[in-house]
Specification:
The chain is α/β, with parallel strands linked by helices and about 475 residues long. The protein contains 17 helices and 14 strands. A seven-stranded antiparallel sheet has the order 2-3-4-1-5-7-6. A seven-stranded mixed sheet has the order 10-9-8-11-12-14-13, with helices on both faces.
Length: about 475
């Protein structure tokens, strides 16, 4: 099996920096033992203008057969185990070798030149023989959405007999501006996906490997389901688990977890003595403070997501009943798992309930509570649905206190990692300025008989305000309440 990685450069930005990134010196040919053979790393060319690193994997077919015996062994007949394409065509064997030989590069680390891993470089990757069950079209569908220019040339079954047609192999060339770590992660996942086979038993820990290597790209890939299924050897339970977790990673409604990564990027100096408190933690603390100040005991967490706020509420005995509500069953299952409801004591379990429900509709189960929380929820709704949410919460459920938090879009300019004009989460339908949020809150409060006060969450910038804005609505007891229909 053979794979090359090439890059170009200049005298000031030499291509030989590839050696630092791979942690393999261009002047040396290195040899590494693997469980199925020997991997060699060498550099056919290494100049300031162009540098190419090659990985050659010599597969020992006898070792491959021996390790295939037992649970999860290869389904091939005895002869096919020895006479097949495994020693020659890129597969999970090459992916495992990539991870073993270039493990530090795969993690995006370079102690000698720490500024290099995060910088995209012009890369060209060539795989002379790649099994592609799905043909060149599938190769294009898998790599093109990741920013690669793809050339997948079919390999003929026999050039002397063109009428036999093409084999299931392609010669693959990828070109694009990528970080080396991203490029290696793409290959690690997609090589066995295209082969649609693995040389080892696929256990539950493969889900973790997939999510780790797919971080930052798999959740939004248009072929996510196919990639997940094939990578996990079409195991339905493992595929379902991986897809659920990918969906939850995108959802992140309760904690805005992707924005949390941006929060931590504000001050991430390696030598700082105090690690900044994530915005999600500050937000939960502000919500708990508002609920305690209101004297609430029975609380609704509307749009509870994965249950982080529910968990914090349960830690305080003054909250005697906590109800988490979410439209997503996946989110509720994850909340159940995080809260360990199955192993919770009887008294503690009696305090918590998880319900599936849509905030766009009235729900009699939600009436009669002291307080309700809408934490990072409203921005996930299309604006035309906001009046329905306002009526369901303020008009029908009518808790005494309602706490609402939402991002302050004005603060987005302070996120160095957030591209201009982008919202903090891919699922946000909008993000309000402080003036827009106050106008919406005042209109809702006036319509349904509430007073409203505002507070900042997170560091307040003198020019753009805080990263999160919070409103506390309190029902006006002097207003005659409408009777339930």
């Amino acid at each position: 099996m053979f794979l090359t990685i090439s890059t170009t450069g200049t005298v000031d930005d030499p291509a030989t920096d590839l050696g630092f990134l791979l942690h393999k010196h261009p002047d040396k040919a290195q040899r590494f033992s693997t469980s199925h053979g020997v991997a060699h790393v060498l550099y056919p060319e290494a100049t300031a203008e162009r540098c190419t690193a090659a990985l050659l994997l010599e597969v020992d077919p006898v070792a491959l057969v021996r390790r295939a015996k037992g649970r999860g062994g290869a389904p091939d007949s005895a002869l096919a185990q020895y006479v097949n394409d495994r020693p020659y065509a890129a597969s999970s064997l090459l992916a495992v070798a990539l991870a073993a030989v270039f493990s530090t590069a795969l993690k995006g680390r370079c102690e000698a030149r720490p500024e290099l891993p995060g910088r995209p470089r012009p890369l060209r990757i060539e795989v002379p023989a790649l099994p592609a069950r799905g043909g060149p079209a599938l190769v294009e569908r898998l790599f093109a959405p990741l920013g690669w220019t793809v050339a997948a040339e079919p390999v003929a079954l026999d050039e002397r007999f063109p009428e036999w047609g093409d084999s299931r192999y392609v010669r693959l060339v990828l070109e694009g501006e990528q970080t080396l770590a991203d490029a290696l992660r793409h290959l690690y996942v997609l090589l066995p996906v295209l082969d649609d086979s693995k040389h080892y038993w696929v256990a539950p820990d493969e889900v973790e490997k997939l999510l780790r290597s797919g971080a930052g790209w798999l959740a939004d890939h248009p072929e996510q389901r196919l990639i997940t299924s094939r990578y996990l050897a079409r195991s339905r339970p493992l595929t379902r688990d991986a897809l659920d977790r990918l969906a939850l990673a995108r959802l992140a409604e309760a904690d805005d977890s992707e924005a949390e990564e941006l929060d931590n990027a504000v001050d991430e100096e390696a030598d700082t003595e105090e690690k900044p408190v994530p915005l999600a933690v500050q937000r939960r603390a502000a919500i708990l403070g508002a609920l305690r100040a209101a004297g609430a005991a029975r609380v609704l967490d509307l749009g509870c997501g994965q249950g982080q706020l529910v968990g914090e509420l349960l830690k305080d005995v003054r909250f005697t009943e906590v109800v988490g509500v979410d439209v997503s069953m996946r989110a509720l299952k994850e909340a159940d798992r995080r809260l360990h409801l199955e192993h919770m004591g009887e008294r503690q379990a009696a305090r918590v309930t998880l319900l599936q429900g849509s905030l766009a509709y009235t729900d009699r189960r939600l009436t009669g509570y002291d307080a309700a929380v809408l934490s990072e929820v409203v921005e996930h709704l299309d604006p035309p649905k906001l009046p329905a949410l306002a009526y369901a919460v303020f008009g029908a459920a009518r808790p005494v206190t309602v706490v609402v938090t939402t991002p302050n879009v004005e603060y987005n300019v302070r996120w160095e990692s957030l591209p201009a004009g982008h919202v903090r989460h891919a699922d946000h339908r909008f993000e309000w300025t402080r003036e827009e949020f106050r106008a919406w809150a005042a209109e809702v409060a006036g319509r349904y008989g509430y007073g409203v006060e505002f507070a900042p969450v997170g560091p307040e910038d003198p020019e753009v305000g805080p990263p999160t804005q919070l409103a506390v609505f309190r029902r006006n007891e002097t207003v005659k309440e409408a009777k339930a229909a």
